[in-house]
């Protein structure tokens, strides 16, 4: 068994051979020191004549659905999941257009780098600056976390797909998700997308003037509406309530969410923890050497990572209330790699991208490789929480979500030194054009997703 661990305080290693051989972008080490304002985004494709989408006359889709069907089948085959797990992944994938969109960020980037390339360049021919982006910035990937000072904040809570891209990628993925996840009309979505873009650009202007933030998120005093309410609620959570949810009598509950680990899984986790123990820096809340109280496999949770390995590890803490460590297998980063081959995922690279976005890393966080697969580990924080957006029915709820999310994304981008000014300079006086084209892209790609999901569901029969 070959295991490599990279902790918060340890040096990030160079890019993987797989990324080098595929001509992928380099590791972002040192990115926080500077962001080049005018890197070419991607190879330019033949120009397509595109018009802004109108609610009653949308722009025609740029491809049929068969390439998407083929892509998802190929991607899933590369995951090498057991047949029953793959069946459940497929059932979840086709349960709604929103689920199909969430499960397949790699398909989104295959399109953005391909047939939707020109439409995704919002200020064409002017190129957006390349920065580290969240990658899977849909509206379901925001929530509460614990800041370094112990307070609770709200922001991007899933960095699994972080990598090199442009601001357009995060904005377009977020705007498209509004159409797919909300019950709002096309006109209402377009209005909120305009609000989202304005909030994002206004916050970038402010950040360019005042400098980077402590983390890529917003505090209760800065948030408003449903987001401020969630922060207030989750800041009152206790470790005892978290333990009650997942444990009983000092061990994990066994249920449809948590199951016993197999002997090979236990060997894998224990090997990872041994290396983690030897290389990880100070973790003041945990007893060291680590005292592992229980290990459970967390059943098939997540979106794009559904079906991959995930483990909960119960460890002793200094105050007598055990902590839960969440150990999760990673996929290759979607903005740069469109493969489901988990051996091509680079744990160090993804981890360094998380840092570049200002992800708040508690002392337990680390990335590592086990038997060629990438994992990272972190505490399951009692402050972790998300909004019940599936229950949102009022436009005001979605407005509050979108406006807060736009500020959080702006802060994550601006955490990279020079990025706020570079993006602001790129947009210049062309906000109306950016907003119009963002609305057009989101409306068209949402419809593309609806049709792709229907075609993929049909292919399963």
Report what the structure shows:
The protein has 461 residues and is an alpha+beta fold. It has two domains: 62-234 and 391-459, no CATH class; 239-379, no CATH class. The protein has helices spanning 17-21, 66-79, 83-93, 97-103, 105-112, 117-120, 167-181, 186-210, 226-234, 239-246, 263-279, 347-356, 395-414, 419-427, 431-459; strands at 3-7, 131-133, 142-146, 152-156, 163-165, 217-219, 247-248, 251-252, 258-259, 292-298, 310-315, 323-329, 366-370, 373-379. Helix 2 (66-79) crosses helix 15 (431-459). The chain is globular. It starts with a strand and ends with a helix. Residues 8-53 have low confidence and may be disordered.
Describe, in short, the structure shown.
The chain has 461 residues and is an alpha+beta fold. Helices cover 41% and strands 13% of the residues.
């Amino acid at each position: 068994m070959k295991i490599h661990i990279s902790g918060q305080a340890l040096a990030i290693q160079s890019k993987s051979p797989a990324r080098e051989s595929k001509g992928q972008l380099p590791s972002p080490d040192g990115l926080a020191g500077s962001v080049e304002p005018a890197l070419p985004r991607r190879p330019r494709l033949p120009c397509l004549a595109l018009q802004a989408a109108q609610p009653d006359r949308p722009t025609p889709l740029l491809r049929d659905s068969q390439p998407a069907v083929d892509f998802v089948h190929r991607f899933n085959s590369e995951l090498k999941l057991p047949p029953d797990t793959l069946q459940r992944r497929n059932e979840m994938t086709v349960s709604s257009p929103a689920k199909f969109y969430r499960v397949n960020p790699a398909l989104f980037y295959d399109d953005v780098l391909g047939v939707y390339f020109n439409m995704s360049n919002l200020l064409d021919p002017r190129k957006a600056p390349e920065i580290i982006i969240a990658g899977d910035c849909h509206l379901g990937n925001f929530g509460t976390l614990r800041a370094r000072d112990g307070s609770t904040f709200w922001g991007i809570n899933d960095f699994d797909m972080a990598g090199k891209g442009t601001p357009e990628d995060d904005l377009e993925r977020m705007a498209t998700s509004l159409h797919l996840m909300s019950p709002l009309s096309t006109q209402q979505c377009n209005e909120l997308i305009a609000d989202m873009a304005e909030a994002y650009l206004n916050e970038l202007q402010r950040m360019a003037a005042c400098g980077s933030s402590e983390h890529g998120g917003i505090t209760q005093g800065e948030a408003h509406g449903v987001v401020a309410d969630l922060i207030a609620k989750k800041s009152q959570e206790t470790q005892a309530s978290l333990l009650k949810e997942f444990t009983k009598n000092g061990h994990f509950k066994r249920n449809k969410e948590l199951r016993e680990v197999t002997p090979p899984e236990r060997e894998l986790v224990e090997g990872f923890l041994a290396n983690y123990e030897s290389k990880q820096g100070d973790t003041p809340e945990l007893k060291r050497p680590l005292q592992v109280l229980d290990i459970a496999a967390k059943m098939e949770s997540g979106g794009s990572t559904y079906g991959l390995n995930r483990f909960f590890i119960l460890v002793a803490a200094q105050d007598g209330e055990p902590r839960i460590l969440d150990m999760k297998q990673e996929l290759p980063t979607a903005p740069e790699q469109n493969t489901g081959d988990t051996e091509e995922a680079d744990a160090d690279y993804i981890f360094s991208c998380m840092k570049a976005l200002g992800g708040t890393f508690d002392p337990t966080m680390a990335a590592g490789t086990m038997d060629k697969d990438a994992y990272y580990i972190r505490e399951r924080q009692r402050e972790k929480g998300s909004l019940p957006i599936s229950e949102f029915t009022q436009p005001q709820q979605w407005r509050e979500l979108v406006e807060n999310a736009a500020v959080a994304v702006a802060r994550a981008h601006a955490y990279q030194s020079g990025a706020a000014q570079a993006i602001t300079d790129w947009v210049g006086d062309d906000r109306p054009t950016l907003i119009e084209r963002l609305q057009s892209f989101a409306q068209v790609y949402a419809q593309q997703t609806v049709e792709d999901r229907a075609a993929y569901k049909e292919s399963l029969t």
